[in-house]
Amino acid sequence: MINSVFVLLAALVVFAFGYRFFSKFLAVRVFRSDADYSTPVAAATDRGDPTSSARYMPFAQHIGSLAAAVTIIGTTLAVAWGWIPVFLWVVVGSVVAAGTYAMGSLWLSRQHGGATQASQARDLAGRSAGTLILALLAALSILVNAIMALAVAEVLVAYPASAIPFLLQGAIAFVFGLFVRRHPGFGIVPGTLIALAAGLLALWLFRGMPIELVGRLQIQSGANRALTLDAPVIWIVLAFAFAWYSAHQPPWKIAFPYGLLSTGLLAMILLILFIAVMIAHPMLAAPAFYTPSKAPGVLPWLFVTVTSGAIGSWHALVASGIGARQLAGKNDVRRVGYGSAIADALIALSAILIASGAFPSQHAWTQAYGSWGSVNHLSRILRIYIDGFAVFGHDLGISDTFSRSLGALMLMCLSTTTLITGIRIQRYTLGEMAQADALPTKATSRIVGLGAILAAALAAQASQEHILEYWQLFGSAGLTVAAAWLAITVLALARRNRPLSLVLAPLLFVLGVGVWALGLELVSNWSARRWGMIGTCLVLILALAAVIWRTGAALYKSLSGQRV
């Protein structure tokens, strides 16, 4: 066994060198942030947000909007193959691939005035490419929203003592946003700290007042179950209702303050964990390499399981739909883009340390991860992280009850923030496409509503089944979107006579792994006659192939007109 301090310090050193040297090389040689940088925030619809005036706020808002809960779930699950494979992929994938991908997404969106991915693809590779990117984004956002809503529901069912503090978090965010807007001179940092303190106070005051929904209403259609209403389904509906309302309000009212509070809770969790590792320095109980019984092979599923945390496709969605609109200076592409990739990697690192080091022995770890079926439930994965965090919190003298409630609150707030962001991105993307095609606004609103309903239905269905049946498809979809957008970035660089190799290399890797995984998913679902999954796989494969074809044709024309 290896000491967790060594793993933590090794990762931090690599992340520091990556940010200090590799990101600077990307900024200077590849993306070339010019001195006459002009931010698109002045023309953006989010300009009224008072938090955009602070230079550090775009980074905090970007982190809060990322699918951090996806990072935690995927990384905790991937530790089943041993800690070394997932550690290497998180560190190398984040520093090389995710950092390039995140920076490129922000840079490209800035070049297009903060436009969404679909609009950028349309400008660069043609109208059909924009439509295809829109289809990929729609599939990915529905899957992400479903998983986030399900994560909120599972945590509320498993940790009912955190229900009231979680519900109060929305009210605290609303008061926080309203106060900052009316008193802009007060300062964002003091306001955030006060709001965080209010959330922690609520967590302590209501620690003995759980909300538990019991019972089940099941509707039968002949011999088949038509509808089941139980606690997870009710919480899923409530989560979507809150996210839908928040996404349709001005960002300063709920979305941005809620994201800031989620980021603050996340920072608190990471700080407690890393200090506990340095003080208690536990040994990693997880083996270096492991093969659980009935588990799929480590390749390509390691890269599919850990998408966020190594090269999360959600970076590009947040950057193009929201993040680029909040940039405030010429260095923000590097700071926010590459910095958010490193922050996502730190979240993944926390999951590695908890899932590997919170167990008292390797035998205890094997009992939890011994078979693939033992971790084939979202609630079990969430419990491993939350209960494991309580073990590290105990080393610092924090009670187990409070640590569990704090970890549960953080996961739910991050999931809800991502859910709000997902619906907002859908609105922005469809709105821009509708404006370009002169479509009625009501039609786009109905499409967004239909997407939310589909995501809620998928989450409700997944709550009755094994999460891995959807997680592999979700990871494959994430890699598909990442490959498509890296191709668009390569095209944009080629038209500006910029170096291509540092973006082309991750593109080829992600494209190969994504197609490999989608092919295996298609074969597996065909054998099981899962027609909905088969249809989704086919849509992803065909859309990706068409985007690559359109982008490749445009790239060939661009390169053929240059001197060699």
SSE layout and pairing:
Elements lengths: L3 H28 L25 H9 L2 H11 L4 H29 L5 H9 L1 H32 L4 H20 L5 H18 L11 E5 L2 E6 L1 H17 L7 H26 L17 H8 L8 H8 L10 H26 L4 H8 L8 H18 L4 H38 L3 H22 L5 H28 L5 H28 L2 H30 L4
Antiparallel strand pairs: 1-2
Helix pairs in contact: 1-4, 1-13, 2-10, 2-13, 3-13, 3-15, 4-12, 4-13, 4-18, 5-6, 5-18, 6-9, 6-15, 6-16, 6-17, 6-18, 6-20, 7-8, 7-10, 8-10, 9-16, 9-17, 10-13, 10-15, 10-16, 11-18, 11-19, 13-15, 15-16, 16-17, 18-19, 18-20, 19-20
**What would the average pLDDT be, to the nearest integer?**
83
Percent helix range: over 70%
Q: How are the strands ordered across the major sheet?
A: 1-2
- Reading off the top of the CATH hierarchy, the class is best stated as Mainly Alpha
Radius of gyration: 22 Å
Quaternary structure classification: single chain
- Quickly give the structural class: mainly alpha
- Following the backbone from N to C, one meets helices and strands in this order, namely HHHHHHHHEEHHHHHHHHHHHH
Number of strands: 2
Question: How many domains is the backbone divided into?
Answer: 1
Major beta-sheet overview: 2 strands, antiparallel
- Coarse morphology: globular
Q: How many helices?
A: 20
Low-confidence stretches: 35-53
